[in-house]
Structure formats: C-alpha cells, structure tokens
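We treat protein structure as text, and this decision shapes the records that our systems exchange. The tokens are whole numbers drawn from a learned vocabulary of local backbone shapes. One such record is reproduced below, unchanged from the form in which we store it:
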Amino acid sequence: MVDISDLPTVGNLVAMLFRRADAKGDAPFLWAKLEGKWQPISWAEAVRQICTLAEALRDLGLSDGDRVMLVSENRPEWCIADFAIMAAGCITVPAYVTNTERDHLHILEDSGAAAVIVANDKLAKPLLGAVLRSGKARHVIGIEPLRITQTSNFEYHDWAALTAADGIAARKAVNARIARIQRKDTACLIYTSGTGGSPRGVMQHHGAILMNADGAARVLAEDFGLDDHDAFLSFLPLSHAYEHTGGQMLPIAAGAQIYYAEGLEKLASNIEETRPTIMVVVPRLFEVLRARIMKQIEKQGKVANFMMDRAMSIGSHKAAGRGRWRDKPMDLLLERTLRPKIRSRFGGRLKAMVSGGAPLSPEVGVFFESMGLTMLQGYGQTEAGPVISCNRPSAGLKMDTVGPPLHGVEVRIAEDGEILVRGELVMHGYWRNQAETDKALVNGWLHTGDIGHLDSAGRLMITDRKKDMIVNDKGDNISPARVEGLLTLQPEIAQAMVVGDRRPYVVGLIVPDAEWALEWARDNSEKFDLKALQDLPAFRSAVRGAIDRVNHDMSVIEKVRQFTFADEPFTIDNEEMTPKQSIRRHKLKARYGERLDGLYKG
C-alpha cells in the first residue's frame, strides 16, 4: 500500500511530487498516445524537465510571485509546466483551451501574467491576439514550435530548448528555492468559469490543494486500497479545479500513473486501452454512457433486457436500504453474466468512478451501481480546493447525498440553509477583488451559495444553488437542477433548462436528443431535419410525453406545464455551457427569455 502519511506535513506541492519521484525513480508516470502507441515519461525524467524549465523561467527574469499563464490541452507537458512554474517560485494561471481572445485578455489583464506557456499554433491563435493587446506578458513559450509572425512586445522561446539542460544543478537550485515555499503561499489562480459575470481568480494556496489531496487519498486508501499499479485517466480540463486536484494532484499524492486521453471522441477506446483504476468524471458523461449502454442492451433481445431490468430492480432496492434475500441467486447470476461485460468496457479493473462538478441524478448513480461499478459523488467549489465532501462505502453509499466532509473539513448549515465551510482547504480570497472576497469569506467561513443539510449519518445533501433557486409567485422554493436532471434522463431529451421565478408554474427549454430524433424520423417516415421535426405536432407530442413521465413523480409546484424547443444544443462554443458542462442560465435567459415568457400567455 502506498504511504500517504506525509501529506498533512509536506511543505508544498513541489516537495510532494519530488518525494514521490525520488521513491519511484524510473517507473512510468505520465502517459500519452504518440503515433498510435502509449508512451510514458518516468517520474525521474518529469522531475528533470520540471527543474530545468523552472531554472529557465528564472533566467528569463521571472521572480517570486510572478504569474505564468498556461494554455494547453491535457498532456504530460501540462503537469510539467504547472510544477515548473511553482518550482520557479511563481504562480500558475491555468486557462481553458476553449477561451476566446476576449477571455484570454481578461485573464491576462486581471492576473498581470508575466509569461504564457501555450501548447500549439491552434491554441496560440486567440491567445497571442490577447497577448499583443495586453502588452503585459513579456515571454511566450511554445510546447510545440509556434509560427510567430509578430513579437513586438514579447520574446518567444521553444519548450525543447528550455528543458534540454542537465537536471542535477537545476534540482539543487530548485530544492533551495522550494524550501522557502510554505503551505500558505499561493500555488495557482484558477479563474472560475461561472454561470454569470466575469471570471474571478481564486487564490488556491499549496495547503488547500494538499489538504484536498490528503482527504481524497484517505477515501481511496481506506475504502479501496492504494497500490503501485493505480492509474488515472485524465480527460476533464486541467484548467478546472476539479481535474487539477482530482486528476493531477490526487494521483501524484497517491503515487499513481496518469494517462492523458486523446479527447472525448476517443474516450471509450482510451478507457479500454489504459484500464484505469480511478476515473474522475462529470455527471453529463455518466448520463451519456448510461444512455449508450441502455440502447445497446435494448438491441440484444429479450434475455438481455430481462437481465438489465432485474439488475436495476436489485440495485434500486439496495440503494433504498431494502436489499432482499430472495434476490441473492439472481444477483450472483448477474455477477457472472451481465456485469462483467459492462465492467470490461471500463477496462476491467476500475475501483471507483468519482462524479463531481455538478449534481448527479440519483437514478444515474443507481444505474452504475446496479452494473457493478462503484460510483462516488463528490461536492465542492473552486474556492475550497475544490473538494468538500465525497461519498464512500464505509460511510454508507447513498446516492441522494454527496457523502461526509473530507478529513479536516468543517461544514455548518446557516439559518437560511446555506452550506458554510471552514478549514485549510478554503481559498485566501479572489485575486485583487476584496469586495467579492468579503462576500464569500465571513469570519473564516466560506459561504458556498449552495443550499443543503446534513443527514443523520453526517452526509451532506445538496438542494440547490442559493442564487438559482426558483421562488414561484406563491413563495414556494423549487430546485431547477433536480427538475432538469430528471428531464435529461429521458431518452427523448438531451438538455433542458427550467424557469419559473415569481411565476405561477414552471416552464422548460428543451433540446431533443439527436439519436432519438433520428430513430423517430425513421419510424414515422419523416426526413431527419431536427429543426423541421420540431414543427410537427406528433414530434412535439412525443417530447411532451417524456415531460409528462417526469411530471408524474413531481410535486405540483415542480411540474413542467409548458415547454419550447431551443434553436440549437447548449455548447461551450455558443457560450451557453461552461467548460465543466454546467448551463449558463443568464445566457439562455437572455437568448430565449421572450419565448419563455410567451409560454405564460397561452
């Protein structure tokens, strides 16, 4: 078992990585698929590159506390750059690869980044425009060689040249420098994508991330065991706090290997190839995987569908704490037939899948548990490292909760139901934004803006975002996330947003599921044109039927009375979704507000 006992006392994140690397040596650490083959970088080689790049940054004139912006897809160089920046005494400023020039300009101006590291020409295009407009960054470093046409206000440097030196002297210099870095010092500025307003830079200090990694590693070690063969598959954006901690810092703390997925379109094959033991995922991906598995089973005939129905029935009873002895023989049969086939699609050695970033519908969690895959739902915020709590078997898995707080985390429920958090994991504030800091941090407690309560077993239950809560014209509180989550579980519905604040009832904005719509068009001898289909009464009636199924189990105030179709799916590109796959309500309301208002006039 991997020893994680040093995490509460290690001085900083770089020191943590160096300890693991010194113990692992030439063992594989960071994996990427190059020319069709998975190829590793060893722990020792990663440290050499980290140290040489750190010293190169110092030679360029960067000093303690300078900010360095990092724009790259998930790859080994992301991790190396992140740690090199910290090893140079600087602060990492991750940015999403989906950012526009305007987004990059905001972060450059707000953070005052002295240098930027960018992966390739494609990502450099919007970034360099912002660099030229800002004039703040003095240096641009290309992980892959960049075709630079204008360098009037910055110097360009090639990654390979900066990391080519021998690492022995560089390691000595870095060791001396990181000895001065303390847990309270800022490690990174992570700009929250947010569902409204301009992103703010959350100052995450070394101790916050270390405490998070410690708490999460304890869950894995105590409930599943850690060993030298553990591997994580990284595919959520590393620029988001959830993946930065859960997909990078946690595996390093646990001495695990990290594989970098080729992209969402190749994720299924990457899972089978790399055979991860832990996966950090967002709910939307689970919903997609569940839908695909269900469709595949449906096509396999009566026996497969019977087995699926029995698995779901048994899983639902177990989730409700009502497991039945009479189900034991069928449970054993499922363990030998259906479940191994499902698990093989996830590599066959998965210990747990951890869901975070947005609420997970309990039905989705029960589905994967029924298939024999352990599902843990976590809860957190960028302002808290980001993990606050996580489900774990030893605390009693309950899919409508997000589990007990991590080790060392204090949680209190305010009089109005808001969740308050205290501990080393809490940020020191928003970068150069004292007014917002004072709103979020009061007497040492982080005001999360989420509503919830603790159950009798000390597990946290989230009701909704305080600011997103619908309050109808009668003063009743309605959770839009709960209604939307149930709607998107229907095969006919891909995405949904509901509104109803200060209104007599709830109405919905619906994006039909494209695969379902294609099948509907074939069955009804219609040409597949999603926009044209939405004008057909029969198509609308089919979607209405899906909404009615959801309404059947809803309270009177939650029922979706009317709906309209969106013009297109909610995406990151049209700025109607955040990079962590949360809908931007303010954007959707601005675009469709008049149409939604019209639903109350009919």
The mean pLDDT is 91. Residues 71 and 118 are 5 Å apart (CA to CA). The radius of gyration is 25 Å. Residues 206-223 form the longest helix (18 residues).
